[in-house]
Amino acid sequence: MIEGLLQPMHLLVIFGIALLVFGPKKLPELGKGLGDGIRGFKGAMAQKVESEEKKG
């Protein structure tokens, strides 16, 4: 079920629906916010790993 979820055609359909819902002007801002969130999450995880390595 999960393995067939991210096929290229499915991604195009999801992108098309997102474009209709959010509009062409809002979509880049949404992508930037999502990218910043992912970067922040990765940075916090890296800091946690570093602090655990220092303790042990």
Question: How is this fold's topology laid out?
Answer:
Elements (H helix, E strand, L loop, with lengths): L7 H15 L3 H30 L1
What does this structure look like?
There is one protein chain. The protein has 56 residues and is mostly helical. It has a domain at 25-56. The protein is built from 2 helices and no strands. The mean pLDDT is 85.
Summarize the structure.
With 56 residues, the chain is mainly alpha-helical. 80% of the residues lie in helices and 0% in strands.
Please give a handful of descriptors for the protein shown.
56 residues; mainly alpha; elongated
What's the end-to-end separation, in Å? Answer: 40 Å
Q: List the secondary-structure elements in sequence, H or E.
A: HH
Question: Taking all residues together, what is the mean pLDDT?
Answer: 85
Oligomer: single chain
What spatial form do the alpha-carbon principal axes imply? elongated
Structural category is mainly alpha
> Biggest sheet: strands, sense, closure?
none
Quantity of strands, as a count: 0
Helix content: over 70%
What does the radius of gyration come to?
Answer: 17 Å
Low-confidence stretches: none
